[in-house]
Design a protein that fits this description.
mainly beta; 5 strands; single chain; about 70 residues; three-stranded antiparallel β-sheet; flat
Length: about 70
């Protein structure tokens, strides 16, 4: 088993210019891909244990390839 750090993130909405917060927790890698210039919200970290052979089950995993 391994530990995974999850955080809530603060980011600026590019359309409105407002500072927003994620309603859910993301890893640093997920935040870097999805949110421009995201910052961790202090005190929001959650450590979870996942199996070493953990499989990503996000909706994109089961979607057909875009070129098909």
């Amino acid at each position: 088993m391994k530990l995974m750090e999850l955080w809530r993130w603060r980011y600026r909405d590019m359309q409105t210019g407002q500072i927003c917060r994620t309603p859910f927790q993301l890893t640093a890698a997920q935040a870097a891909l999805q949110l421009a210039e995201a910052e961790r919200i202090p005190g929001s970290m959650r450590m979870i244990r996942v199996e070493d052979d953990f499989v990503d089950t996000l909706p994109a995993v089961f979607s057909p390839p875009a070129h098909a």
